[in-house]
Amino acid sequence: MPPLTTLALTAGLALLGALAGAAAGRVIPLFSRHEPEPDDESGPPPPTCPHCGTEVPWPRWAPLPPRFLGNAGCQVCERRVRAPAVTPWLAALLVGILAFTSVDRSVTEIVAFSAFAIWGALLTVVDARVHRLPNRLVLTFYPVALALLGLATLTTPDTTDRLVSALVGMAGLAAFYWVLWFIYPAGMGWGDVKMAGLLGLFLGWGGLGSVVSGTFLAFLFSATFGLTLMALGRANRKTAIPFGPFMILGAFAVITAGDPLPLLLE
Predict the structure, then answer these.
(1) For the segment 98-122, what is each residue's pLDDT rounded down to a tens digit?
(2) Neighbouring C-beta atoms of residue 127, cutoff 10 Å
(3) From the UniProt record, which GO molecular function terms apply (predicted)?
């Protein structure tokens, strides 16, 4: 990639990351923690204003609520959401993805994986805060992800096999997590199952070995974190730790640093 193109793309991604971070920061507080009673079948609450509790208008087709992407406040109390400061590190994340992946990826591929980074960062913070992977954020990203990777296939030569591998990875990883949930529902959240297909899609773009490596790292990171908390006396075997952030972290690690599996098998 020519230096001037790289510089322009770096600046563009930094700006995109900053704007996405600002928007994501306004969305994160809309989700509250949900700890249902055993006989509660109502499901988690919809996104609501953290000040007055009014449900936020969120079209089913929209990955994010249009009203809160700007600087508008709640339509009832008109108060604005004060968000976590995610803008700087989300901008840095997008630039980091460019630095690690620009060698063998086209511009359309970088755009697709940047969208994945934005989405993954948003879900990581939400799940860490409220132990939820909301359908509004997970399911609405499926068509976006498929469209972006489909566009990358159409505009980049010799990527048809990558798309096939990505689709196989999506189906395979979703099935794997569904089996884990079916065997032991208490140890695996249904939100993790729904999100697994998206991780498999982007990991599978790099090969099915990447899907295996990203999944292994997710469990490794989660176990390491849990054992560390237990060693520090801040958790026990019954402490609930959200698994979604580790799933996303494992995927990011393989996508940015590469799949370590071929090296281990040599």
Answers:
(1) 665 555 677 888 888 888 988 888 8
(2) 25
(3) aspartic-type endopeptidase activity
Query: Is 57 strand, coil or helix?
Result: coil
- The SS3 assignment for 55 reads strand
Q: Measure the CA–CA gap between 183 and 180, rounded to whole angstroms.
A: 5
Q: State the Cα angle at 199 between 140 and 229, rounded to 5°.
A: 110
Residue 222 and residue 242: Cα distance in Å, rounded? 9
The full DSSP string for 74-100 is: -TTT-PPPPPPS-HHHHHHHHHHHHHH
Would you state the structure tokens that stand for residue 143, as one six-digit string?
A: 């068509």
Question: Is residue 43 a contact partner of residue 68, using CB atoms and an 8 Å limit?
Answer: no
**Distance (Å, whole) CA 177 – CA 199:** 11
* Three-state SS at 20: helix
What is the Cα–Cα distance from 98 to 114, expressed in whole angstroms? 8
Q: Give yes or no for a contact between 35 and 61, defined as CB atoms under 8 angstroms apart.
A: no
10 Å Cβ neighbour count for 226? 16
DSSP 138-152: HTTHHHHHHHHHHHH
Tell whether the torsion through CA atoms of 108, 206, 102 and 249 is positive or negative.
Answer: positive
Neighbours of 10 (CB within 10 A): 15
Q: What are the sequence ranges of the domains in the chain?
A: 1-36+44-133, 158-266
Q: Report the interhelical angle of 190-204 vs 208-231 (nearest 10°).
A: 130
pLDDT digit string, tens, across residues 41-64: 556 778 888 888 888 878 777 777
Helix (H, G, I), strand (E, B) or coil at 188: coil
**How would residue 256 be classed by pLDDT, with cut points 50, 70 and 90?**
confident
Report the length, in residues, of the chain.
266
